[in-house]
Write a structure and sequence with these properties.
Shape: globular
GO molecular function: undecaprenyl-diphosphatase activity
Number of strands: 0
InterPro entries: PAP2/HPO, PAP2/HPO_sf, UPP_Pase
Helix content: over 70%
Mean pLDDT: 90
Protein name: Undecaprenyl-diphosphatase
Keywords: Membrane, Transmembrane, Transmembrane helix
């Protein structure tokens, strides 16, 4: 199926593998720090909730829609093993954008850095041959939208004294 399967060679390949595999730990560390720090706990709570909703949306979309991953449809090499489920949406991208947008809505500086890391994560998924650019763009939109909707819902409930 693939001509040059699983052969990382260049430093950029290795960097993209590192980003794709390990960036989730950076996001978990930031969430843990925010959860422990009482002034950021509300933002961390919203980020976790929006991530859970994003995962549900991911499952729903993948249960009704299948789009072959780039390495399944074309003769391109992949740098690390991948599932053969639907290319859209990208779970990695959904989650990092969901978290970074939630953080951005609360703390612009940290959120901006996390948004940059989210874009790098999405790009790494394309570089590895696991997703198409439109998968990443759509997943970033969904993850961000879910976070904004979660934030708006919390604000609405708070204004009605329900939260």
């Amino acid at each position: 199926m693939n001509d040059k399967k699983l052969q990382p060679g260049t430093p950029i390949d290795l960097f993209m593998i590192l980003i794709s595999k390990k960036m989730r730990y950076v996001f978990l560390f930031v969430l843990l720090f925010m959860w422990i720090n009482s002034s950021y706990k509300k933002a961390a709570k919203k980020a976790v909730i929006s991530s859970l909703f994003s995962l549900i949306i991911n499952r729903l979309i993948k249960s009704v829609y299948f789009k072959p991953r780039p390495f399944m449809k074309r003769r391109i090499g992949i740098l690390i093993p991948s599932k053969t489920d639907s290319s859209f949406p990208s779970k990695h991208t959904l989650l990092v954008f969901s978290i970074s947008t939630s953080v951005f809505l609360y703390e612009r500086f940290i959120g901006s850095i996390m948004w940059g890391l989210s874009m790098l994560t999405g790009f790494s998924r394309i570089w590895l041959g696991h997703h198409y650019p439109i998968d990443i763009i759509g997943s970033a939109f969904i993850g961000s939208f879910v976070s904004i909707l979660t934030d708006k819902t919390f604000r609405f409930l708070k204004s009605k004294d329900l939260a």
